[in-house]
TrEMBL record:
This is Sugar 3,4-ketoisomerase QdtA cupin domain-containing protein. Signal peptide: none annotated. Pfam families: FdtA. Gene3D superfamilies: Jelly Rolls (2.60.120.10). The lineage of its organism: Bacteria, Pseudomonadati, Pseudomonadota, Gammaproteobacteria, Methylococcales. It comes from Methylomonas koyamae.
Length: 138
């Protein structure tokens, strides 16, 4: 996979004077079966989250409230995404390193994941990630 496989997905939006509604359906709006959901919140100003990669995990990341930046890295190229709308999700393909920063006050990051948590799927060391990413492209 490459950075070009990662993209913003516009989610359905039903506008209403009483408040908008957005829904997400696995297989229709998310290109994987959702096995885990988690969210980040109360991130202190100036803090960075993530700083890891995944071997096989796919994710959809959504700014449910506020905004933050996601920098994705496939070992060859980096790309910055600014998330600030609850009806846009960032699809993150397998094999990407990710860094999250620039959280606004009150930001909430929702993550839908294709797999249950398993430590074996993580790259925690950037140099190990780079080596694996470059070996895959040979």
């Amino acid at each position: 996979m490459s950075i070009n496989d990662c993209k913003i997905i516009e989610l359905p939006r039903i506008p209403d004077a009483r408040g908008n509604l957005t829904f997400i359906e696995a297989g229709r709006h998310v290109p994987f079966e959702i096995k885990r959901t988690y969210y980040l919140y109360d991130v202190p100003g100036g803090a960075t989250r993530a700083a890891h990669g995944h071997k096989t995990l796919q994710q959809l990341m959504i700014a449910m409230s506020g905004s933050f930046d996601v920098t994705l890295d496939d070992g060859f190229e980096k790309k910055l995404f600014h998330l600030n709308r609850s009806y846009y999700g960032l699809y993150i393909a397998p094999g990407m390193w990710r860094d999250l920063d620039n959280f606004s006050s009150g930001a909430v990051c929702l993550v839908l994941a294709s797999e249950f948590y398993t430590e074996e799927d993580y790259y925690r060391d950037y140099d190990v990630f780079l080596k694996a990413a470059r070996e895959k492209r040979r």
